């Protein structure tokens, strides 16, 4: 089998998009001077950090086009939904919001409504939107996000619905604008797509095959971020352990971490997600050696029963997972682990579920994101006739949550009286004097502080343990 090598969208094509940005900027300038008020956009992002990062790219393009961001849909000239389809409730939420836009469009026929992201990669969803939500003007997918300026221009000029969804791509678009939500902490996507095909998961179908950005492009982005004052980066990919496999030159994720660890100004490096089946020793050593890489690892286990793990196509056993956890904890003492768990995968028996409780008790995660299994059309698990009833799923879910909460609490209780390094993010939402930040282990810490501490690393002595956060005092 010949190796698939990731390519870049040509400079010419990117330049073309900048031309459309310019056309729209002129158009908007005229609108602004005619109306005497800014043209505004509003983006609603559903789903994971990858989608958040994609929305930051859309924001970047829009601000270059002369749009300003608005928190209010009702006063916006352009509304975008960036959608997720990982679970059914994510999709239901989108449809709910989309229905509510109909009224806005009736009141303001000039309003442009665009919908993009993972849901749009499913042809039946696009059909449904065409039929039921006729107030939508632009539909595009995950593979052609960089073409948004062109699609928007076509919609504005033609005043007709524009639908453009690609099945796949082997390319990556670099050098498009980006406007980030947070200046202190930034998402940096290092690879797109997933080749793992876990049997329950829709992501490989809607995000396509694995594609890694070049190390040089990633490093340049991180250096630029550091110059702009960013202190913490989180590297994103569905399975970062596969980074570089599609590039010529023997690049690895461990190598990427070592390279980024040298960037001056960046204080902390995080990443997600790692698949347990191919978390290499080199990666563990890189985490251990690189002082900027935080002592936190998100390592989704999904289930505890080896039989279910096999059915899920996860390609590790319960024992292998626990051995891996041991190895990581030995090399990186004090590391915090978080995980994802699915409850009620088809065919899951009470005995299988007790293995999930057992692995949770043994691995002692700091935190777990727990999900009820959701049937995704097109995935192998959806065809399994042995679906678990909602009632049983919910009952198991509650037991799992109770166990995990008590473990999280026990782990946090051990932090009482300890010192922690906190990157100060700013005022906490509910107070004028309480500041908030996170430890290297990703725990939220609140403390009395002052404005000049924002963006700094401070030492805090933990004096109170709460369910979702810690309280402490500046040392
Ligand atoms: N690539 C990442 C996560 C992708 S989706 C990984 O492999 O870990 C995030 C989480 O959603 C998954 O870890 C899984 O726990 C959950 N998930 C995915 N498909 C699901 C489904 N059909 N039903 C319920 N949860 C699901
Ligand atoms: Fe989905 Fe599995 Fe890929 Fe994660 S690794 S995105 S769970 S298929
Ligand atoms: Fe959802 Fe797509 Fe992320 S399906 S979880 S937004 S990759």
TrEMBL record:
| Binding residues annotated for [4Fe-4S] cluster 1, in chain numbering | 48, 84, 118
Residues bound to [4Fe-4S] cluster 2: 194, 198, 201
Task: Give the enzyme's main class according to its UniProt record, as a single word.
Answer: transferase
Which compartment or compartments is the protein found in?
Answer: Cytoplasm
Cofactor(s) needed for function: [4Fe-4S] cluster
UniProt remark on cofactor binding: Binds 2 [4Fe-4S] clusters. One cluster is coordinated with 3 cysteines and an exchangeable S-adenosyl-L-methionine.
Binding partners and assembly: Monomer.
Q: Could you say which protein family the record assigns here? A: Belongs to the methylthiotransferase family. MiaB subfamily.
* Name of this chain's protein: tRNA-2-methylthio-N(6)-dimethylallyladenosine synthase
What's the source species' lineage?
A: Bacteria, Bacillati, Bacillota, Clostridia, Eubacteriales
């Amino acid at each position: 089998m010949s190796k698939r090598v990731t390519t870049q969208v040509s400079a010419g094509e990117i330049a073309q998009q900048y031309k459309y940005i310019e056309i729209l900027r002129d158009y908007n300038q005229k609108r602004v001077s005619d109306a005497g008020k800014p043209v505004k956009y509003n983006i609603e992002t559903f789903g994971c950090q990858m989608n958040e990062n994609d929305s930051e790219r859309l924001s970047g393009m829009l601000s270059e086009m002369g749009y300003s961001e608005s928190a209010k849909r009702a006063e916006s000239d352009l509304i975008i939904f960036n959608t997720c389809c990982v679970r059914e409730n994510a999709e239901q939420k989108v449809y709910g919001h989309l229905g509510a836009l109909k009224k806005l469009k009736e009141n303001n026929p000039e309003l442009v409504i665009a919908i993009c992201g993972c849901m749009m990669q499913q042809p039946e969803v696009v059909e449904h939107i065409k039929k039921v939500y006729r107030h939508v003007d632009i539909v595009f997918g995950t593979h052609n996000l960089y073409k948004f300026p062109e699609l928007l221009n076509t919609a504005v000029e033609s005043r007709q619905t524009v639908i453009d969804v690609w099945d796949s791509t082997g390319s990556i678009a670099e050098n498009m604008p980006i406007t980030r939500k947070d200046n202190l902490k930034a998402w940096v996507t290092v690879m797109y797509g997933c080749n793992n095909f876990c049997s329950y998961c829709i992501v490989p179908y809607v995000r396509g095959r694995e594609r890694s950005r070049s190390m040089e492009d990633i490093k340049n982005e991180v250096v630029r971020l550091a110059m702009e004052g960013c202190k913490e980066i989180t590297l994103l990919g569905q399975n970062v352990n596969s980074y570089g496999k599609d590039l010529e030159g023997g690049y690895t994720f461990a190598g990427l971490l070592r390279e980024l660890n040298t960037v001056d100004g960046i204080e902390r490096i995080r990443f997600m997600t790692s698949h347990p089946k191919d978390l290499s020793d080199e990666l563990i050593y890189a985490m251990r050696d690189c002082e900027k890489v935080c002592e936190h690892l998100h390592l989704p286990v999904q289930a505890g029963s080896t039989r279910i793990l096999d059915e899920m196509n996860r390609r590790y056993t319960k024992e292998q997972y626990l051995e891996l956890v041991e190895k990581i904890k030995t090399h990186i003492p004090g590391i915090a682990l978080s995980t994802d768990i699915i409850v009620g995968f088809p065919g899951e028996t009470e005995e299988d579920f007790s293995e999930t409780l057992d692995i949770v008790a043994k691995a002692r995660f700091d935190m777990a994101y727990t999900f009820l299994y959701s049937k995704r059309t097109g995935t192998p698990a959806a065809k399994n006739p042995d679906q678990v009833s909602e009632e049983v799923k919910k009952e198991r879910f509650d037991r799992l949550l109770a166990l995990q909460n008590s473990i999280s609490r026990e782990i946090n209780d051990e932090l009482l009286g300890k010192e922690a390094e906190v990157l100060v993010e700013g005022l906490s939402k509910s107070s004028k004097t309480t500041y908030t930040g996170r430890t290297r282990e990703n725990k939220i810490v609140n403390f009395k502080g002052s404005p000049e501490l924002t963006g700094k690393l401070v030492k805090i002595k933990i004096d109170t343990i709460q369910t979702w956060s810690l309280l402490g005092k500046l040392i």
